Amino acid sequence: MIGSCAFALRGTKTATQAGVEPILRTEHLRVEYPASRRGEPPKVAVKDLTLRVYPGEVFGFLGPNGAGKTTTMNVLLGFVRPTSGEAYLFGVNVKDPIARQRIGYLPELTYYYRFLTAEEILRFYGRLFGLGGPELDRRIERLLKLVELEPARNRQLKHYSKGMQQRVGLAQALINDPDLLILDEPTSGLDPIGRMKVREIIQRLKNEGKTVFFSSHELGEVETVCDRVAIVHQGELKVEGRVDELVRSHQANLEQVFLRIIGYPTSLAA
Amino acid sequence: MKTWFALAGVVVRELYRRKDFYVLFVLTALITLLLASVDFFEDVRVVRYLREVTLLLIWVSALVIAVVTAARQVPAERESRTIFPLLAKPVTRAQVVVGKFAGVWLASGLALALFYGFYLLVGALQGAPGSWTLGLQAFWLHWMMLAVVVSMAILGSLIFSAPSVNSTICFIVVAGILLLAGHLNVIAAAQPDPWGSVVYGLYYALPHLELFDVRDLLIHEHPPVAWGAVGVATLYAAVYAGIFLLGAWWIFRKKALPT
């Protein structure tokens, strides 16, 4: 239902204004990690983060290393409990595992069972979503074709290159035909061809009306594919808005906007 | 249910794609065949000795497979970070614990079936097959005992971070129970209080794994065990496995993931 709604809203600038329920929502999210030494204050990874991501958007979640991007994603995925505040996916609190029924997640690095083949990995993750029979077979075929891994489908992952493993990751993230994709630096560590392929897949998903929430350091890539971005620094949301509006209002490209917002002297960057 | 089977399937695949199981089976088979090839003037004691050695090897091998496989499940998921894409699916931590247990227990059962099948086959080839019913009961009781051991090792893997430490502790505990648990009441009776009460407490709290050991009955060709007793032993194992798995889930649900 939301998928079709997302498709209808694709590319519309007024998605946030049309009273559409956000797919992803955080409310005053705060995450603290215990201090490494006794007597020190806890480390605040995320401070008062309120975000909205709407159906059909490609949303870039940006920030320098240690800004709190992965922690926020970890909260959304239920790996980390927030110290305060709440997070919701499809209106369901992320504490409830059912909130993850309609999402696909690609971690920053490839974390899969190296003794399984690509086909077995997809079958395993598909079963976790309750899929089976001809429907699962059909999805596996389609995804292996999408990520161009058909010839290597019966090879164990330990024999795959990093780029191939990342494409298996992308395929597993899509096995349940998710309405929302959470991608943590999907092109990290890939060669230019691998990056291009991942970017093409994100573009294709965008055209299919999927919602994509992703973090990346590749700001050129973000500028190309994202509708809106949020920039976080030291756990705080610094700016949130449409990419074209940010670029226009700052009269600079996204990289320069990003550097200004995080307080890096842009004269040095130039 | 589908989630449990999916998780268990990965564990079984891991076991048969690793070398440990084959090494143990080939070693057991070689020693058994070597002993079986020796003809000691058809002395019945030699047959018994052969059975004893083979069954001991089966017990040690099955224990190694079960403990080592169970001990590495959750730590390996955390270390290789496969736990992240796993828990990003609509999977609860309770399902992970039960799925891992089911996988290791099933894999151990398959290995055990192969070992016992081999044992009965060698016996049959030697002209002394023994009771097939008792053989089946021995396999079943052994497998039930492994349910307790596997759940204990999974609980241990959430307490001790290093699988090697967990495995060592599990081996010591299981060996200790098998050798001593049945005599703890006698030891308790000889102790003054409060030590006597402590040892009695241990006697009643520990899972009596020695109850599942019917090797002597097999070796000395006793009649099969009453099926009622097998049923009670199965229930006994289920209760202990359930308690250990509940403890494992309790710890795992609060455990932070590596960030």
Q: Quaternary arrangement of the chains shown?
A: heterodimer
Arithmetic mean of pLDDT of chain B:
87
Q: Largest interface, per-chain counts?
A: A-B, 34 and 26 residues
Intertermini distance of chain A: 47 Å
Write the H/E string of chain A, N to C: HEEEHEEEHHHEHEHEEHHH
Structural class by SSE content of chain A:
alpha/beta
The CATH architecture name of one domain in chain A reads: 3-Layer(aba) Sandwich
Q: Estimate the global geometry of chain B from the Cα principal axes.
A: globular
Structure description:
The complex is a heterodimer of chains A (270) and B (259). Chain A is built from ten helices and ten strands. Chain A has helices at 2-9, 69-76, 118-128, 133-146, 162-174, 192-207, 219-225, 243-250, 254-261, 266-269, and strands at residues 24-33, 43-53, 58-62, 84-89, 92-93, 103-106, 180-184, 211-215, 228-233, 236-242. In chain A, the strands form two sheets. Chain A has a six-stranded mixed sheet with strand order 6-7-8-3-9-10, sandwiched between helices. Chain A is globular, with a radius of gyration of 19 Å. By secondary structure, chain B is mainly alpha-helical. Chain B has one domain (2-254). Chain B contains eleven helices and no strands. In chain B, α1 (2-17) packs across α5 and α3 packs antiparallel against α5 (93-125). Chain B starts with a helix and ends in a 5-residue tail after the last helix. In chain B, 39% of the residues are buried.
Short description:
The complex is a heterodimer of chains A (270) and B (259). Chain A contains 10 helices and 10 strands. By secondary structure, chain A is α/β, with parallel strands linked by helices.
